Write a sequence for this structure.
């Protein structure tokens, strides 16, 4: 694709107000030669370092066949490797001795878009223009790394935005992505070929816009990057943009960080949250269906039979004058039973009026159960002011207690249960325990009732812990942050 930000600049572009980087390009300290040729071996590009290393000016070789220019000079081994590189899509690295030049050459080749790019360096060629003074080189690199370490330090690079060249520094791309490249130039189009096709337009459009505007000192983005083995990694790229005296974005220095593990973990957490939410939704719906089924069963098994008996007594009263009063009395008793059953069902569905506080509601619930079921339930509370708890939280606490007591009555076969509601420090703690038959937690912890309780607690960032084993009773501990309960209560009161 076209890279207009590399071939032209906006004359109205403003120089960044960010801190200016005064150091030399890293390519000037490492002196890599770089050239490109087409499939006919005609030279398309020849940089200044190549001029110095090979002794040939760019004007004398661009547009000419490289093998004809160096006929009888370049070793045959070079030709064999270059020819092979044209058939591959990944970098090829080799070292050869060039007798005519009296040097060993470290070479990396790239094939991309029917063009072969070559980055090379000589191990013992004198470079008078490039300082060999260790202190000077250290100063240059220190200035560079001072900016890079503000970003990341995984795969370092320097990008010449005017010559389309990217210098991969210090082997990071070799270690992380498997490319046999270390301190070498690569063409920009090779980097583009590594971007996932679905990310290409987004990445290049945004980068182009940033460089054209010229108002930012930082480019940052995330995308999928192809490794040498053909697989894709998720990466985070961040670069510091450097502007020259003509207010052009001339260079970037930065780093590429592999964030695949982080992205996959986030995807896993999202999926787990979605799964949990589905479980909660299913639990709530299932609880509603069970509740409706229980109401239907009560209506059919209890109220329907009682009303049928009442109807029979009324018919008998009409038919028998002698026993009329007795049958009418029985009808009256049956109607009273119906009213009691309706009251019991309504108490299950509707929390008592808001005139009562949470603790009074719990006492009434416990009292009703103690009257009709063969179980003793004790309720204790201390250490908190229920007036600070909002009505929604009070309702959820009541429903949790109601749900667990129903579980105890149905399954525990317990003779005694205890409810403790208290505050310890910044925690509101609800403990419901019974002396029943207990259960295996691994088998029972995913029941509809328990999931429903957990979903109610999670609304207030609460937790639910259960301790039980066969024959050892059942202890449920619900912990809700007290500050959350108070703050929500105050907000609700103000509204």
């Amino acid at each position: 694709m076209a890279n207009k930000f590399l071939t032209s600049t906006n004359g109205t572009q403003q120089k960044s107000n960010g801190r200016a980087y005064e150091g030399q390009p890293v390519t000037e300290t490492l002196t890599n030669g770089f050239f490109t040729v087409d499939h006919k071996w005609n030279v398309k590009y020849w940089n200044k370092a190549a001029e110095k290393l090979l002794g040939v000016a760019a004007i004398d070789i661009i547009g000419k066949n490289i093998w004809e220019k160096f006929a009888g000079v370049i070793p045959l081994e070079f030709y064999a490797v270059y020819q092979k590189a044209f058939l591959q899509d990944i970098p090829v690295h080799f070292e050869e001795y060039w007798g005519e030049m009296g040097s060993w050459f470290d070479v990396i080749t790239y094939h991309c878009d029917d063009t072969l790019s070559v980055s090379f360096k000589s191990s013992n060629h004198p470079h008078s223009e490039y300082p060999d003074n260790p202190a000077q080189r250290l100063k240059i690199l220190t200035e560079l790394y001072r900016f890079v370490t503000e970003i990341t330090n995984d795969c370092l690079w320097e990008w010449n935005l005017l010559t389309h060249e990217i210098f991969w520094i210090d082997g990071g791309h070799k270690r992380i992505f498997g490319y046999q490249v270390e301190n070498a130039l690569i063409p920009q189009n090779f980097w583009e070929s590594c971007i996932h096709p679905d990310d290409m337009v987004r990445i290049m459009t945004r980068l182009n816009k940033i460089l054209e505007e010229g108002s930012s000192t930082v480019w940052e983005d995330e995308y999928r990057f192809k490794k040498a083995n053909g697989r894709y990694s998720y990466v985070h790229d961040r670069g510091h943009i450097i502007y020259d005296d003509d207010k052009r974005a001339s260079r970037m220095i930065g780093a590429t960080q592999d964030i695949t593990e982080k992205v996959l973990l986030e995807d896993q957490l999202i999926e787990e949250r979605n799964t949990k939410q589905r479980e909660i939704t299913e639990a709530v719906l299932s609880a509603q269906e069970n509740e409706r089924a229980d109401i239907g069963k009560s209506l059919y098994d209890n109220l329907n039979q009682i009303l049928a008996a009442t109807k029979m007594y009324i018919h008998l009263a009409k038919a028998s004058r002698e026993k009329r009063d007795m049958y009418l009395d029985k009808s009256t008793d049956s109607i009273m039973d119906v009213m009691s059953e309706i009251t019991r069902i309504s108490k299950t569905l509707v929390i008592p009026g808001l005139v009562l506080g949470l603790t009074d509601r719990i006492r009434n619930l416990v009292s009703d159960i103690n009257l009709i079921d063969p179980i003793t339930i004790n309720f204790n509370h201390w250490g908190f002011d229920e007036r600070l708890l909002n009505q929604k939280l009070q309702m959820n606490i009541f429903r949790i207690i109601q749900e667990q007591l129903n579980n105890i009555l149905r399954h525990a076969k317990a003779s005694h249960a205890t409810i403790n509601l208290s505050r310890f420090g910044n925690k509101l703690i609800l403990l419901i325990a019974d002396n029943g038959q207990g259960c295996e937690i691994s088998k029972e912890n995913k029941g509809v009732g328990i999931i429903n309780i957990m979903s109610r607690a999670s609304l207030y960032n609460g937790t639910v812990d259960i301790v039980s084993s066969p024959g050892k009773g059942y202890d449920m501990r619900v912990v809700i942050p007290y500050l959350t309960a108070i703050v929500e209560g105050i907000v609700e009161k103000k509204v």
